[in-house]
Amino acid sequence: MSFVNVATLMAEGVSLDGITGRLSVFNMLEAVSAPSFPAALGRLVVVNVYEVEGEREPRWERVRVTDDAGQVLVETVTELVGEGTAHRSMSLFQGIRLSKPGAYFVTVEGARRRDDPWEPVRRRRLQALLGAHPLARPEQGEARVPAGTSALTE
Q1: 4-62 per-position pLDDT tens digit
Q2: What is d(CA 105, CA 126) in angstroms, rounded to the nearest whole number?
Q3: Closest CA to 79 of 87, 71, 67
Q4: Could you tell me which of 146, 149, 152 has the C-alpha nearest to residue 133?
Q5: CA–CA separation, 136 and 20 (whole Å)
Q6: Mean pLDDT across the stretch 108-114?
Q7: Domains of the chain, first to last
Q8: CA 84 to CA 100: how far, in whole Å?
Q9: What is the DSSP string of the chain?
Q10: What Cα–Cα distance (Å) separates residue 41 from each residue in 14, 72, 94, 95, 103?
Q11: Whole-model pTM?
């Protein structure tokens, strides 16, 4: 069976409807802001969407988060057993320690068996920025609390 990755999404949360099987992804991430470093990324969910073609054959997936030097910060390994023509996988990471501002990478790899060599599937960049949240009001000073949607209209 061939698993073809059609999307890799990074977000703070997901919701799966138990009746319809629909997946909702919340707060998509391309960059994160922190007032100081080292910092912790509270939650990162990596969702991979695959199209499944051919005969039913399990496949393994490895998702890693690395820093710009290639050091692995966290990783998951999952067996994919395709049903139908599409398959989704989700990896949840909590409390990822970001040592400094800069580029971090989410790498997805695949293999026919867990002990086979891993082949690259997809790589996404997550940028860590030093500074206040973009929605923080200047008068909030060091608190740097997001101001909500009202900040967009003032």
Answers
A1: 899 999 999 889 888 887 888 899 999 999 999 999 999 999 999 998 887 767 789 99
A2: 6
A3: 87
A4: 146
A5: 37
A6: 94
A7: 2-153 (2.60.40.3880)
A8: 42
A9: -EEEEEEEEEEEEEEE-TTT--EEEEEE-SEEEESSSSEEEEEEEEEEEEEEESS---EEEEEEEE-TT--EEEEEEEEE---TTEEEEEEEEEEEEE-SSEEEEEEEEEESSTTSPPEEEEEEEEEEEES--TTB-GGGGGG--B--THHHH-
A10: 16, 15, 7, 5, 14
A11: 0.81
The pLDDT value recorded for residue 133 is: 67
Q: Which residues contact 126 (CB under 8 A, 6 or more apart)?
A: 10, 29, 30, 31, 32, 44, 65, 103, 104, 105, 106
Burial class (CB in 10 A: 0-12, 13-18, 19+), 128: buried
**For the segment 58-103, what is each residue's pLDDT rounded down to a tens digit?**
789 999 999 999 999 999 999 988 667 778 899 999 999 999 999 9
**Residue appearing with tokens 């695949």:** 110
Token pair, residue 126, equals: 């997550």
Residues forming a β-bridge with 43: 94
Are the C-beta atoms of residues 53 and 87 closer than 8 Å to each other? no
